[in-house]
Design brief:
Blueprint lengths: L1 H10 L3 E6 L9 E5 L9 H11 L1 H10 L7 H16 L18 E3 L5 E3 L4 H28 L1 H14 L1 E3 H17 L6 H9 L14
Antiparallel strand pairs: 1-2, 1-5, 3-4
Length: 214
């Protein structure tokens, strides 16, 4: 159902159990999530659902600070890997269809030291690259729109984190449930729920609704 699809954008990486602004390694903060079950099979919708979550930190920087830092670089790398795998490895993209462009058996490193696709025509490579870029752009836009729509809730969470440095357990789940409820009730044409479902189901339209970044 559409309401269930709306939830995937939150738990495509598992339910969040802890959010902290205490630095760990190179990270200025972190979110811990626990998968709902051990598995190694994912649907196209579940993979796409991971992308806005991974790009959420970058989108938050743009929304609140109007600039991007290196803080979200690890999540950006993970999002890029998933998007590339969706198109190149799993045959779930539109550009080249059910065809594997990269596998463990056809990898090679080109003269620039970059892993490249082998035995694939230039046209197919360009089409796949363009689709990966489009998927990531759409995920970035959705992450930004979700945060902008829920800015009040985000600011509430920020205040809690500034006071305690950690948010977890039942209190964190309450925030997640509020976010889910807001998605489900945003049912107007072009509303947040429509945007989430269109992205997860890969329902592209010529003009997708977007909140002005400013």
């Amino acid at each position: 159902s559409a309401s269930r699809q709306g939830r995937v954008v939150w738990n495509g990486m598992g339910l969040p159990t802890k959010v902290s602004i205490v630095g760990r390694g190179n990270a200025g903060g972190y979110t811990l999530s626990i998968p709902e079950e051990d598995r190694n099979l994912f649907t196209k919708e579940e993979i796409r659902g991971r992308l806005p979550v991974l790009l959420g930190g970058r989108a938050a920087e743009m929304l609140f600070f109007k600039r991007i830092t290196t803080g979200a670089s690890d999540d950006l790398q993970k999002a890029s890997n998933w998007a590339e795998s969706l198109v190149d490895r799993f045959g779930m993209g539109r550009a080249v269809g059910p065809r594997v462009l990269i596998s463990d058996s056809n990898r090679y490193v080109n003269n620039r030291g970059v892993e490249a696709r082998s035995s694939v025509g230039e046209t197919s490579r360009e089409a796949a690259d363009a689709e990966v870029r489009l998927i990531l752009d759409e995920a970035d836009k959705l992450a930004y729109n979700v945060l902008a729509e829920m800015r009040g809730l985000v600011e509430e969470m920020v205040q809690v984190l500034l006071e305690r440095e950690v948010l977890q357990g039942a209190e964190l789940i309450q925030f997640v449930e509020k976010c889910e409820a807001q998605v489900k009730t945003s049912t107007g044409a072009g509303g947040l729920r429509d945007q989430v479902v269109q992205f997860l189901m890969d329902e592209r339209v010529e003009k997708s609704p977007d909140l002005e970044r400013g």
